[in-house]
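Q: Sequence in, structure out?
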Amino acid sequence: MDTAYVTLSRQSGLMNEMRLVANNIANANTTGYRQQGLVFSEFIRDVPNNPSLSMSRAEARNTSLQQGVLTETGGSFDFAIEGDGFFMVETPKGNRLTRAGSFTPNAEGDLVATDGSRVLDSNGSPVFIPPDAASIDVGSDGTLSVNSQLLGQIGVYRVDEPKDLVREGNTRFRPAGDV
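A: Exactly. Output:
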């Protein structure tokens, strides 16, 4: 009976790994997507007068925070961060970090992500885009301007301990401990 549990534990882990691989492939072209991997662990127990018992688990996930390839989209309000850092968006569950920079102004003039979450500037306030702005100029430091008029600076947030980020969905993160 023990060998059945051992085999089942390994197969269960491999099935979880296949789900992650399938999700990585399905989201390969999703803007801001971070690839995931699975970490296997093995528990070995000495059983008196019998061979040791070994069980494996595959529940710890790791997320790659390596920068992906930057591709010009031609979108006036699409941004990318070269190097470390995240955009901050305001969601109903609180502020969240993302690398997905496909934004657009909403009817109120706020710069928003594809789901309507407002993009925050370097001070944590929503980024406002004037209604007559057909395009926006972005400096290498994130400074935003329209027709040479300074609007503000899009927030680029750095994380001290990236391993402490908790993944929410395919492109959002929150610091561990935040709800």
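The longest strand covers residues 53-63.
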